[in-house]
Amino acid sequence: MSASESYAKEMKTAFRQFADFPIKGEQFEDFLPIIGNPKLFQTLIDMFKAHLEEKFGEEKIDFIAGIEARGLLFGPSLAFALGVGFVPIRRSGKLPGECATITFTKLDHEETFEMQVEAIPFDSNVVIVDDVLATGGSASAAGDLIKQVGAHILEYDFVLTLDSLHGEEKLSAPIFSMIHS
């Protein structure tokens, strides 16, 4: 087993599962224990950084866009490690100034995401990050915001992908996930 496979296995076991959250019948995959463990968190950032540098070494990444809520927790650290900008994608009403907005259906309700219009210049290259890819609704909406401002999505990156939910089918760019379940 390679070192990256070993770390991915350790990260997978660090996830905590919560039944019937956020709604009955759903299982929530909580990655917060990874952030609470400095060694695992540093490994997470290092593994994403190595992947992105290997894949896009010649193609410049301009921004990491983190999806609320958990993409906001590790996205800035990854952006800092790569030496690129960070842009938050937030729920409605959390950002000042002119915002691009999109409303989408998530589980049993509608949500609205926003991103400041001037946060990402036209023609920029963006990697979107979040903790878990499930049905793909949040990630797809985030991608639509990036496209609204005329930027390019290079890739969607996740710590964990729940393969049985086929969320990748909703996404308009390749995905990378450290862990598949």
UniProtKB/TrEMBL annotation:
The keyword Cytoplasm applies. It is found in: Cytoplasm. GO terms for biological process: adenine salvage; AMP salvage; purine ribonucleoside salvage. GO terms for molecular function: adenine binding; adenine phosphoribosyltransferase activity; AMP binding. Its main location: cytoplasm. Keywords: Cytoplasm, Glycosyltransferase, Purine salvage, Transferase. Residues 37-177 form the Phosphoribosyltransferase domain. It is an enzyme of class 2 (transferase). One of its GO terms (cellular component) is cytoplasm. Its EC number is 2.4.2.7. It catalyses: AMP + diphosphate = 5-phospho-alpha-D-ribose 1-diphosphate + adenine. Pathway: Purine metabolism; AMP biosynthesis via salvage pathway; AMP from adenine: step 1/1. Catalyzes a salvage reaction resulting in the formation of AMP, that is energically less costly than de novo synthesis. NCBIfam families: PRK02304.1-5. Homodimer. Belongs to the purine/pyrimidine phosphoribosyltransferase family. This is adenine phosphoribosyltransferase.
